[in-house]
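Question:
Write out your own:
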Amino acid sequence: MLKLNLLTALIFANTFIVCAENHNRVYFNINPEDRRIVFHIQLNDSITANISFDSGAELGCLILDSTFCAIHPNITMNSLLDIKTLAGSAWSSDNAPALIHKKATKIKIGNTDLKYDYMKIYNWKNYMKTSSDGLFNLPANDTTNVWEFNFENSYLEIHQAADFKMPENCFVVPIVKELNNPYPFNIQLPIKVKCADGDTTTLNRTFMIDTGISHDITLMYKADKLPFFSKKSDAIWTKIMGSYCRHYTVDATLINHFALDSLRIYTYNYPNKVNCDYLIGLNFLKRFNVFIDMRNRQVGLQQIKNFQRAVNLKYRRFYFSTNKTSKGNYLVNFIADYKGNYYKTAGLQVGDEIVTVNGTPYKKITYQEEKEFYKQDTLVFDIIRKGISLKIIVQVGKNEIQGD
């Protein structure tokens, strides 16, 4: 009986130790549509919210959806309203009206209380076309914790920085401070790239870590390596935030010994508000367990065996874009230059004014109606070109592979 009691005590003790070790471990999911890291967190100790993590967002700022706050009015009960402002994504020129509150609501992840300096409230769900209730980054100047994003098992574990040691098989890189780049997570990485046509190049640059984008590697319009990729003919064009980007699938090697097969390089040829030329996104990070240590200003990358790309199969190919004039007309301002663009093949040109599509005034076409057009076999565009009315008949490539 004594042996049995001792055995029971040992089992209980070991169970307690395991639980104690993992009390700050919180599991997350990645929604395949918006491909953001989403946690169940507690606001004011009583309100459960699904909040996205975005390392590219403002440090010390908690963003909440206005409709979610309307359902839970006590979130703002003790918070002083500061100013009205505009908010939005750096990837888009469109903004939404927002309210800034000087005092952020209490937020808890697992058993860890986090303090944010202020919160921003606006119609987040509608603006981002997402189901999450808001967004957060690390608290400003968080030097007491090390944040482990374990993509192998889909959990976040918050460690005490004073007692933490990086795993032995981690490659540790310093966080770089750049005067012209206000984002907090910039790291220097050498990445050797081999393209599908056999051409090679090396991206030995400072990269900003931005979990808010799904891309592997992103080159912005000022990146010095952009011309190298722009001349490649194997680009896949996709829509993003009302515009487009292109990606190329390459083989790559990180730090001379981490093989990164089927890496995707995304390129942007137009200006936006992103204040960095090279970025690392979610589908790069998902190849590792990632440790962010603000106290020692370093990031650990522990390569994992089973990488699964986060893919949104509903992402549409990009074909053309329009610009609304001061008179309310819509003119084609860009057409994607690739062989499979059936709008270009049908004869649509830059400068064409689109009047109707299948009889529906173009200016009145809703987002849902646009999606329904892709299911049809034929689209008839009534356009005006140099003052002459024309019809452009487009045979929709319904078998074209979609997804990003």
Summary: Residues 30-141 form a domain with the Cathepsin D, subunit A; domain 1 fold (CATH 2.40.70.10).
